[in-house]
Task: inverse folding
């Protein structure tokens, strides 16, 4: 609950900062956030019910990788044991990434831009590759886009495309869940033999 509250507070501050840079009234933003919060009560509950009806949270179809971080932390706090050799790995990295924020301001800019974030480094190690690799490819694409088409990048085209991908994936996941709940099979499974049809439905 503390982490979720801090995360939401950070999101709201980022929204207000963005609105300030764009010349938006804080009062208008606050009213918009009130309406959005009220609507999200119904949308979030309905979406959660939809996803839990269509899938099992933690299954291969709905892995929820970030939730594993919370679950493992809760297990440790409530008396669980860490895996063996954790201290041998965690302690050196803790020292390195604890010192980097202090060292970074002393280094030239062309060096500091290649120093990774400790949190991003840890999450990248923790989450499975099928979640990390697309983010790495997206970062490489963004780097290439910014380097090759600077004007387009400065106009925000990269952010618009990235937002479209994220929004599109979310919308289609809802559509897929609705089709799954209503037992509508994908057209790619039509006309297959019974054993092949069962295998197709698992994907």
Result:
């Amino acid at each position: 609950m503390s982490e979720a509250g801090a995360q939401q507070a950070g999101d709201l501050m980022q929204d207000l900062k963005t609105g300030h840079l764009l010349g938006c009234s804080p009062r208008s933003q606050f009213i918009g956030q009130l309406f959005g919060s009220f609507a999200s009560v119904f949308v979030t509950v309905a979406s959660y019910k939809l996803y839990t009806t269509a899938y099992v949270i933690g299954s291969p179809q709905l892995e929820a990788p970030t939730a594993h971080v919370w679950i493992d932390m809760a297990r440790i706090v409530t008396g669980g044991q860490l895996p063996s050799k954790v201290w041998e790995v965690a302690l050196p990295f803790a020292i390195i990434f604890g010192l980097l924020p202090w060292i970074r301001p002393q280094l030239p800019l062309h060096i500091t831009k290649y120093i990774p974030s400790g949190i991003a480094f840890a999450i990248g190690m923790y989450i499975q590759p099928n979640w990390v690799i697309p983010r790495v490819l997206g970062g490489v694409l963004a780097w290439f886009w910014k380097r090759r088409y600077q004007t387009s990048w400065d106009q925000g085209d990269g952010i618009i495309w990235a937002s479209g991908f994220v929004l599109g994936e979310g919308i289609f996941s809802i559509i897929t869940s609705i089709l799954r709940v209503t037992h509508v099979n994908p057209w790619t499974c039509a006309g297959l033999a019974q054993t092949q049809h069962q295998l197709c439905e698992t994907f």
Q: What stands out?
A: The chain has a mean pLDDT of 80. The chain has ten helices and no strands.
